[in-house]
Amino acid sequence: MGAAQDRQEAQAGSSGSPQRRQYRGTLRDERAADTRERIVAAARELFASRGFTGTTVAVIAKHAGVATPTVYAVFNSKSEIMRELVSRLEVEADSQRWHARVEAEIDPRRKLEWYAAWHRTLFATGRDVLAAALDAGGDPVVLDLREQGDRKAQAWLEPIIAALAAAGVLAPGLTQQQALDRGLMLSSVELYFRATKGRGWSDEDYQQWLTELLHHQLVASPDESDDDN
User: Fold this and answer.
1) For the whole prediction, is pTM greater than 0.85?
2) For the domain 89-228, what is the CATH code?
């Protein structure tokens, strides 16, 4: 029915009024968007239950109610569906609001706390997608996504480290690069899953632990910062 309907719409569009052609084009766009969303939703559900490696494009197609060639036409590969899912995580976690909160904070120590809270929110919101990405192993697209994620985390943390250094509260003997490296390692998604999935911690437990550890590793104690001043 779909192919016949498309032919009918094309014929009507070519012979109809501009308004009718615009309506037909809008209808096709809406159908394409709906198909894309069904594929993404099906893949996310299957990745969560079967893992990335245990999910095939054929199974995604069946779960989405479309033909397998349709999935390939929309996304080209299973890895590209993962790219789409990861690209949506920051929006789902309200990245812009968190970033504005970090930037507006005057106290650099509090900036570090907001950084920990942001990571908790991002990881908790995208737990299923991130777990599937880790399951993907050496998939080239997923490896590229992880590198992009590392760069974004660095872009978040660099100005916070600079603010700590400017305020004279960076831990003694620690360069800004060393502080950045420590912060990035401590806030990795692998440690999040080790804590929550591996040890049964709540997301609140993880956030508190990360906040305390970042302060301990990166921030001078009150006595040390007083001595520097």
Assistant:
1) no
2) 1.10.357
Query: What is the residue-wise DSSP string for 127-190?
Result: HHHHHHHHHTTT-HHHHHHHHHHHHHHHHHHHHHHHHHHHTT-BPTT--HHHHHHHHHHHT-HH
Residue 21: count of CB within 10 angstroms of its CB: 16
Cβ neighbours around 175 below 10 Å, total:
11
What is the rounded CA–CA span in Å between residue 192 and residue 163?
Answer: 25
Tell me the CATH architecture of domain 2-76. Orthogonal Bundle (1.10)
Report yes or no: 98 and 121 within 8 Å, Cβ to Cβ.
Answer: yes
Residue (of 80, 116, 79, 73) closest to 98 by Cα position: 116
Name residue, tokens 């998939």.
Answer: 139
pLDDT of res. 34: 92
Q: Which residue type occupies 225?
A: S
In the chain, CATH 1.10.10.60 sits at: 2-76
